[in-house]
Amino acid sequence: MGFICKKRLAEIRETAKVQRYGSVIPISGSDFVREVSQSPPYVWVVMILYKDGYPECGILLQCLKKLATKYPATKFVKIVSTDCIPNYPNRNLPSLLVYNNCVVKANYVGLYNFGRRCTPEGVALVLCQSDLVLNDSQSGSEPSRKAILDGVRQRLIETVIRDHEDDDDGSLSD
Domain of life here (predicted)? Predict the structure, then answer.
């Protein structure tokens, strides 16, 4: 019995070590180094360059807000594009940059990267294609890339089915 208690306490301590973010954190240009570049090497940072008043930015921000709550060990930040990069072209909005260990691991310019309809599941699938960006911190200390991708794919399928059922009016047509 003592072994089980000690093992469970060790698991709880390990989970507590994982930083929990759970929201999209607004940052300014002066916060960039602290919030992005100086993040610990085990933390993935997903940063959106945006501007208010651009509908595409709003769509992607909504997706990221949902992902941030689902994957609290991944840091999601948002920054006004010109606060981060002076003269950043509006035609490139929204842009998503993925950082890990002070290095840009991926960048996505525009919504077209995330499919015909930009959904949280579609964004998650794209983010997980090359690296283990999303981590829910519940799957143990080293969740496998396959397990994360399988979960994201399953949620995508469930969403498509649910949306299809919602669109279906129940009538049969030939």
Answer: Eukaryota
CATH code: domain of residue 19: 3.40.30.10
Distance CA 131, CA 124 (A): 11
The CA distance from 45 to 56, in Å, is: 21
61: nearest Cα among 75, 47, 82, 81: 47
Are 153 and 133 in contact by the 8 Å Cβ rule? The answer is: no
pTM > 0.85: no
Q: Are 152 and 124 in contact (CB under 8 A)?
A: yes
Q: Is residue 112 part of a domain?
A: yes
pLDDT, tens digit, 9 for 90 and up, residues 49-108: 999 999 999 999 999 999 999 889 899 999 999 999 999 999 999 999 999 998 999 999
Task: Answer yes or no: is 54 within a domain.
Answer: yes
3-state DSSP call for residue 168? coil
Which residues on neighbouring strands pair with residue 109, listed in sequence order?
95
- The two three-digit tokens of residue 84, written as one number: 């981060």
Give residue 110's identity as a one-letter amino acid code. Answer: G
Length of the chain measured in residues: 174
> Which residues form the domain of 36?
14-167
> What is the C-alpha separation between 105 and 122, in angstroms, rounded?
19
